[in-house]
Design brief:
It is a single chain. The chain has 3 domains: 251 residues, 2-enoyl-CoA Hydratase, Chain A, domain 1 (Alpha-Beta Complex), CATH 3.90.226; 185 residues, 3-Layer(aba) Sandwich (Rossmann fold), CATH 3.40.50; 207 residues, N-(1-d-carboxylethyl)-l-norvaline Dehydrogenase, domain 2. Helices cover 48% and strands 10% of the residues. The chain has 29 helices and 16 strands. Strands 11-10-9-12-13-14-15-16 form an 8-stranded mixed beta sheet, sandwiched between helices. Strands 1-2-3-5-8 form a 5-stranded parallel beta sheet, with helices on both faces. Strand 1, helix 1 and strand 2 form a beta-alpha-beta unit. The longest helix has 22 residues. The chain is globular, with a radius of gyration of 28 Å.
Length: 697
């Protein structure tokens, strides 16, 4: 018996280089007559996180050994192989386990084939073995979700043979000593599902294709995955594996997968901030410079404050919420308990866990309860004077080492810091609504914010399971500053005669979950107008349509009327319905302002909105507000629903061609005015003979 340990820190990635070593170890075990069975286990507390994604960005080196070669060696051997799984077995790691004859795991293990999230499909036999093991329908659902599935559920599906409460390696060794018989999954016949006859395969495949997005709108990999599973049902194993390989190679070079892999790598770069030590980025809990957050405070029990409190409670941090408005506190209590009970109904929490989390949030009107908080986040009305007053009050109450953060989405962090005697401990933590669900967190660095405070903020982001992005202190930071230009163009198009419904439909067709007008309705038109006034503008666009809508109490979804109207009988009151009243208002006010009506194409709608994002993003990079183009892309993918298969605004500029984007922006400047002046960075990249990259500028 031979134990082969996967050991390639930190996640035992099955890179080309590591697969060469693994292949040698496997072949040596096969050649040794004294070895009658082989056990695979993993070091570093896990089995394997799968392939090294970096390898996908490079051409396969001549003579390279891949996970396919490793699995082929396992498949051809006459000796039994056992996978002893602890931690995670993902992607190629699970495909290796599927090539084994037996799979044993610990209760804490999670298994998955997450390739779909990178615009790929399992490319080492996973699409062929899994349908043969658990049926095509269950296998397809497993792979399309791409989630890491708990061991108990994986056992129910039939992927695992056993869950071991004790030492999984010892159990695997014990089994290996019995020299169990070979059980090649490749020798099995694939089925659809236990209750579905094979004659129904064409119907099931057709239905599967209908249930995923179109190929050109984020569903390219899903359709190829369905094709691969169809091959498992219809073809002999060897032919199915060959088709899987062709489909995988097609996806590796697809625009969608390149974009999704860009997002993946951009996420890994987020915490790499000049001036912060590597230990703070990779292991914040080990760094002496990061502060432990044992208790948090929130000022304001509104929608945002409640969401922030839930977020901390979900991470096991007790929270004190301060608010003197009894009505707001009562509503917040209902929101908190309603959220936790919803999670119980969905099976995500037990009754006891929900009760514990609910009890960890304390509501009070006594500010002194914040005295021993390690971090206090203010979430009061977006008014600079009100916020400065809050910070001055907190400075006199919260312990000297405590951090003070603002959840502002637009305002000056330095002005708030100036109201305190601890500006080095003041920063922005901009959560997105709803705070307990949205994955994005903008960390805003003030002029005096210390490295320790920033390092702690990134540790907080990790603790809260957020995508934490650093932003400089500028009006609107990264996301909202860019959205102002995006909405500006949407408004301009409406003033020129394009209906809000058509603008939104074009952007939804591009891949956004909602268009700019529905997004404005969701945020609240009164909030939008308030922000415009803080910017020094009376309203959005060249007319006063926004002001008139607010005066008419058309405040958006919350008022069941905004740019669109809403009906509780349609989509629970969340589905926007085109409203001729608003369309006529735009037309009337445009006529008064002397704005001529224009006929525009869908292409122009897309270009004006998307290129406005790109141009402003380039300005933010020039100004140092955004650290990297990838940071901007993460903000928009996770905060604003930019379709990830287009990689974010900056990646999309490369997809289109920066020179082409630049020339179009110059045309817009000539046609519409100085608000379209292209950034110097954009001009410089465009001048590099159309090979320049804005996503890597």
């Amino acid at each position: 018996m031979r134990v082969i340990t996967l050991d390639n820190p930190p996640v035992n990635a099955l890179s080309f280089a590591y697969c060469a070593k693994l292949y040698e170890a496997i072949e040596a075990a096969h050649a040794d007559d004294s070895v009658e069975a082989i056990v695979f286990t993993g070091a570093n507390g896990l089995f394997s996180g799968g392939a090294d994604v970096n390898d996908f960005n490079n051409e396969l080196p001549a003579g390279a050994v891949t996970i396919r070669d490793v699995i082929r060696a396992v498949e051809l051997s006459i000796k039994p192989h056992i996978a002893a799984i602890d931690g995670v077995a993902l992607g190629g790691g699970l495909e290796l386990a599927l090539a084994c004859d037996y799979r044993i795991a610990t209760p804490r293990s999670k298994l998955g084939l997450p390739e779909i999230k990178l615009g790929l499909l399992p490319g080492a036999g996973g699409t062929q073995r899994l349908p043969r093991l658990i049926g095509a329908r269950a296998a397809l659902e497993f792979m399309l979700k791409g989630s890491a599935v708990p061991a108990a559920r994986v056992l129910e599906l039939g992927i695992l043979d056993e869950i071991v409460d004790g030492n999984v390696l010892e159990r695997a060794i014990s089994l290996a000593k019995e020299i169990p018989p070979k059980r090649r999954i490749s020798a099995l016949e694939a089925t659809i599902a236990p209750d579905v006859p094979m004659q129904a395969a064409p119907f099931v495949v057709a239905q599967a294709h209908k249930m995923v997005p179109p190929e050109d709108n984020g569903g390219f990999a899903a359709h190829k995955l369905i094709d691969a599973v169809q091959a498992a049902v219809e073809l002999p194993f060897a032919f199915g594996v060959a088709r899987e390989a062709r489909l995988f190679d097609e996806l590796v070079h697809s625009k969608a997968s390149l974009a999704l892999r860009h997002v993946f790598f951009a996420e890994r770069e987020l915490s790499k901030v000049p001036g912060l030590e590597a230990t703070q980025q990779c292991h914040p809990e080990r760094s002496r410079r990061t502060l432990a957050i044992a208790k948090a405070g929130v000022v304001g029990a509104g929608t945002m404050g409640s969401g922030i409190a839930i977020t901390f409670a979900q991470s096991g941090v007790p929270v004190v919420v301060v608010d003197t408005n009894e009505e707001a506190v009562d509503k917040a209590r209902q929101t908190v308990m309603g959220m936790f009970m919803y999670q119980v109904q969905k099976g995500r929490l037990t009754q006891e866990e929900a009760w514990q989390r609910g009890q960890s949030i304390t509501f009070t009107d006594d500010w002194r309860e914040l005295a021993d908080a390690d971090l206090v986040v203010e979430a009061v009305f977006e008014d600079p004077e009100v916020k400065r007053e809050v910070f001055a009050k907190l400075d006199g109450i919260v312990k000297p080492e405590g951090l003070l953060a603002s959840n502002t989405s637009t305002l000056d962090i330095d002005a708030m810091a100036a109201a305190t005697g601890r500006p080095q401990k003041v920063l922005g933590l901009h959560f997105f609504v709803p705070a307990n669900i949205m994955p994005l967190l903008e960390i805003v660095r003030g002029r005096a914010t210390s490295a320790q405070t920033l390092a702690t903020a990134f540790a907080i982001g990790k603790m809260l399971k957020k995508k934490a992005v650093l932003s400089g202190n500028a009006f609107g930071f990264i996301g909202n500053r860019m959205v102002f230009d995006y909405v500006r163009e949407a408004f301009a198009l409406a003033e020129e005669g394009t209906t809000p419904a058509r603008v939104d439909a074009v952007m939804k067709a591009f891949g956004f979950p909602m268009g700019p007008f529905a997004m404005s309705d969701l945020s609240g038109l009164d909030i939008g107008l308030h922000v415009q006034k803080l910017q020094g503008k009376a309203g959005q666009g060249r007319t006063n349509v926004l002001e008139q809508l607010v005066e008419q109490k058309r405040l958006g979804q919350k008022a069941m009327a905004g740019f669109f109207k809403y009906d509780k009988a349609v989509g629970k009151g969340r589905e926007p319905i085109a409203d001729s009243v608003v369309e006529q208002l735009f037309a009337q006010e445009a006529c008064k302002a002397g704005i001529a009506s224009r006929v525009v194409t869908d292409r122009e709608i897309r270009e004006r909105l998307l290129y406005a994002l790109i141009n402003r993003g380039a300005y933010l990079l020039e100004e140092g507000v955004a650290l990297r183009p990838g940071d901007i892309d993460i903000v928009f993918v996770y905060g604003y629903g930019f379709p990830p298969h287009h990689g974010g605004p900056m990646w999309y500029a490369d997809e289109v061609g920066v020179a082409r984007v630049y020339e179009r922006i110059r045309e817009f400047e000539a046609t519409f005015g100085p608000q379209w002046k292209p950034s110097a960075l954009l001009a410089r990249v465009a001048a590099s003979h159309d090979v320049g990259s804005l996503a890597h500028a």
